[in-house]
Amino acid sequence: MSIGHALLALLEAGPRHGYDLKRAYDIHLGADRPLHYGQVYSTLSRLLRNGLVEVAGLESGDGPDRKRYAITDAGITDVESWLAGPERPEVYLQNVLYAKVVLALLSGRDAQRVLDTQRAEHLKHMRELTKRKSDGDLVDQLICDHALFHLEADLRWLELTAARIDQLREQVRTTTEGGK
Amino acid sequence: MSTDTEPLLRATELFKAFGPTDALDTASLSVAAGETVAVMGPSGSGKSTLLHCAAGIMKPDAGSVRYDGRELTALSDGERSELRRTEFGFVFQFGQLIPELTCLENVALPLRLGGMRRKLAEAEAERWLGTFDVAEAALKRPGDVSGGQSQRVAVARALVTTPRVIFADEPTGALDSLNGELVMRLLTQSARESGAAIVLVTHEARVAAYADREVIVRDGRTQPVVLT
Question: What is the complex's ipTM, to 2 decimals?
Fold first, then answer.
C-alpha cells in the first residue's frame, strides 16, 4: 500500500492537518493497521520535498505549530496516474503453506494433518470476517470480502492438494530416491 | 425431549451404500438447538447423503439418527414425513418450487398442508415474502422471477412453518456471489431470530463461514475436528 498516494488522494477533498489525515486514513483504509503519527509526518515531509503537497497555513497554539497541507497540481497528476495504472498481481509462488506441505512430504511427516490444521484455521478466520462483515458498514464489507476471497482461494488449493496427497507423496518419494 | 447433554439432532456412525458404492462409511453429525453447522467436502464425498439421512429423507443401512429424543430410523415412512413437515425446513440448490403455483401459494403450501385456512396461510406467506424482500414476486410463478428471487422464495417457504432444523443443500449453488450472500445472510439471520438450527451442505468456504462450525466429509467419512 502506497501511503503517500493514499494521503495525496485524501488531500484532494481539501487541505488538512496531519492528525486529520491520519484519522481519515484509519477510518477508510486502516482496517487492523492504523497509521503511526511518525509515518504520517515522514510521508508528508517527503511529499512536500517532492512538490506534491504544500503548506497551506500555520496555526499556533499551546503546543507546536500545526501545519495544514494542501495537494499541488503535480500531486493531483501523481494520484491520477497511480489510480489509472494497474497493480502487479501477487504471484504467490513462494507461499509458506506450499512450503509446509512439501517439507512434510519430504520429511515423511503427515502432510494431510498439515492441510487439515490449516483448513480449520482458515475457516475460523473466515467465520470471524463473515461476522464482522455482517455487523459492519460498506467499508467493512469491502475489506472483509477482499480477505474472504483470498482465504477461499487458499482453501480451494488446500482441498485440491488434499485430494491428490497420495500422488504427491509418491512423486516426492521417487524424486528423492532418484536424486540419491 | 432433548436434554442439555444431548444435541437436538445426532447422527451416529451412518452407513449407506448405493449398489457397490459406499456413500457413507461411519459418518457422524451432531447439531445443537439453534446451531448452524456446515457440512463440507468435495463432490461425491457423501455430504448430501449425510444430510438426507440426518433429515429422515433417506434411511441409512446402519447407524442411528436421533432427533429430540426420538430414533428416526425406527419411525414409519408416514411418521418421518410428518416430522419433516412439522419440524424441519428444506432448501435445495434448485427445482424445489412448484412451477404451476404462484410464489405466494408456494410459500403458503406447507401451512396449507398442515391444515391452516387459505387466508391465514397466505397472510403468513406474504409476511415472509416481505421479510425476504420478494413481496413483488407474490403473484408471479417461479419461472417468471430471477434465480436470486426464486431462491429467496424457497428460503421463505422453508421457514414459514418455523421449523426447529433447516436442512440446506448447496442453497447458493446456482446463484452469483451477490445473491448467494443475500440468501445466506437472510437464512442465517432468520434462523437465529427463530432459534432454528441449520445443517448447511456446501463446498464453498465463503458459504460455510456463515456457520458456527464445520464438519468435513471425505470418502463417506466425517473427519475428526482439528482444534486451532
Answer: 0.81
Q: Which residues of A53-75 are buried (b: 16+ CB within 10 A; e: fewer)?
A: bbeeeeeeeeeeeebbbebbeeb
Q: Residue B115 has which C-alpha cell?
A: 391444515
Sequence-separated (6 or more) residues with CB below 8 Å from residue B228: A117, A120, A121, A124
Question: Which three cell numbers, joined as nine digits, stand for A148?
Answer: 474472504
Question: Which of B42, B185, B228 lies nearest to residue A134, judging by beta carbons?
Answer: B185
Burial class (CB in 10 A: 0-12, 13-18, 19+), A88: exposed
Domains within chain B, CATH numbers bracketed: 9-222 (3.40.50.300)
Q: Collect all residues from B whose CB is shorter than 8 A from any CB in A.
A: 42, 185, 189, 204-206, 208-212, 214, 216, 218, 223, 225-228
Q: Please report residues of B whose CB lies closer than 8 A to that of A122.
A: 205
- CA dist., res. B27 & res. B53, Å (int): 10
pLDDT in tens, B180-210: 999 999 999 999 999 999 999 999 999 999 9
Q: How far apart are CA B45 and CA A19, in angstroms?
A: 55
Q: How far is CA A77 from CA A11, A83, A175, B36, in A?
A: 13, 10, 54, 51
List chain A residues with CB under 8 Å of B227.
Answer: 120
The grid coordinates listed for A37 are 503519527
B121-141 tens-digit pLDDT? 999 999 999 999 999 999 999
Residues of chain B positioned with their CB less than 8 A from the CB of A119: 216, 226
Measure the CA–CA gap between A126 and A106, rounded to whole angstroms. Answer: 30
Distance from CA of A18 to the nearest CA of B (A): 38
Q: Which pairs with CB-CB distance under 8 Å and at least 24 residues apart come from A92-99?
A: A97/A154, A97/A157, A97/A158
Shortest distance, CA A6 to any CA of chain B (angstroms): 28
Per-residue model confidence as pLDDT tens digits over A56-115: 988 776 666 688 999 999 999 999 998 888 888 777 766 888 888 888 888 888 998 899
Q: Do A120 and B208 touch (CB under 8 A)?
A: no
- Which one of A113, A115, A116 makes the best mutation probe of the B interface by having the most chain B beta carbons within 10 Å? A116
Q: How many CB atoms lie within 10 A of CB B186?
A: 19
Nearest residue in A to B41, CA atom = A159
